[in-house]
Amino acid sequence: MKTFGIIVGSLVALFLVLGLIAPKDFKVSRDIIIDRPQADVYAYVKQLKHQNLWNAWFLKDPKVKMDYKGEDGTVGFIVTWESAVKDVGVGEQEIKNLVDNSRVDTEIRFKVPMEASFDSYVITESVDAAQTKVTMGMHDEMSIPMNVMSFLFNKIFGGEDHIIRDMDQSLINLKTQLEQK
């Protein structure tokens, strides 16, 4: 019984130390160059209804049920989704801020498979008259113990790699969609 107490105490101590040293924020971003003018790219990405054509998460379930609230491409617009596919789940995304021809800031709120929310963004930057650099990213700030859970999920169990793969695929899909127009 004493050994069990030492093991449990050690695990609690390890968890607390991890809570103090693990990052309290999570950030990831990826980018791609698209052969289209910045205004065209921005006009497309600010319309959240287009995401089911290029976003890798939504493409995992062709039967995902999506609903919309408000005017797409404006602050306050919300897209909700519901899917039986675990990786897609149930949630919503709301446009929080728009910087004309430059940036779309959204908040993503998951309900299933777990309650979570984070900020995401798409930035468009003109490379030249016919090319645009698109950066897709997400970030979140967490307190203890969520920072430990995030660290374990992202660094130990490969969650961040999975997110990066999906972001890269989303950007490739976006590039394909826009360059075919």
UniProtKB/TrEMBL annotation:
Q: What CDD domains does the record tag this protein with?
A: SRPBCC_1
Q: Which Gene3D superfamilies match?
A: 3.30.530.20
> What's this protein's name?
Polyketide cyclase
